[in-house]
Amino acid sequence: MRRAPDTIWKFVKPIVESLDYEFIGAALGQTESGLTLRIYIDHANGVGVDDCGKVSSLVGAGLDVEDLIAGEYCLEVSSPGLRRPLFSASHFEAQSGNEIKVRLTVPVDGRRNFKGTLTGVEGEQIVVEVDGASHALNIADIDSANVVPDFD
Fold first, then answer.
1. What tens digit of pLDDT does each residue of 111-146 get?
2. Percentage of residues in the chain with pLDDT exceeding 70?
3. What value does the mean pLDDT take over residues 28-53?
4. Residue boundaries of the structural domains of the chain
5. Cα–chain-centroid distance for residue 126?
6. 2-78 belongs to CATH 3.30.300.70
7. CA 82 – CA 148 distance, rounded (Å)
8. Exposed, middle or buried, 9 (CB in 10 Å: 0-12/13-18/19+)?
9. What is the CA radius of gyration of the chain?
10. Which CATH architecture has domain 89-147?
11. From residue 74, how far is each of 27, 34, 121 by CA, in Å?
12. 3-state SS record for 67-79
């Protein structure tokens, strides 16, 4: 799954925030269920099934009216979970020092996949250390990025 188009973000974010949830982001892509729009929400008190249902009902009704996604799709609303998706510079800053997994839309240093320690954010780039080498990656070129859970 990759970041959903900005038109979807701009439509969904105010709906989620009007319900007093934090809008983490939205991803769109093919899954075993077909085309899927996944919306990530958070709340200071945590996110439960009822919270996801409330957001899903309102967002789903709005998306049906606006017709922002052509054809049939599955709508999923979820908390960020242990493998928290990272979309913005502020998301990356909050995870500095943690291990992350990044997939790029364009290769950097001959590769698209990076798994290593996020050492910082510099403007619109993140710096990931992999096997002792630092790689500066443009946030705009990130297809997907997630925290790698630490179970120690």
1. 999 999 999 999 999 999 999 999 999 999 999 999
2. 100
3. 95
4. 2-78, 89-147
5. 15
6. yes
7. 8
8. middle
9. 16
10. Roll (2.30)
11. 12, 7, 34
12. CCCCCCCEEEEEC
Structure tokens at 106: 């364009």
SS3 of the chain: CEECCHHHHHHHHHHHHHCCCEEEEEEEEEECCEEEEEEEEECCCCCCHHHHHHHHHHHHHHHHHHCCCCCCCEEEEECCCCCCECCCHHHHHHCCCCEEEEEEEEEECCEEEEEEEEEEEECCEEEEEECCEEEEEEHHHEEEEEECCCCC
- Paired sense of beta strands 2-3 and 142-147, if any: unpaired
pLDDT tens sequence across 43-55: 999 999 999 999 9
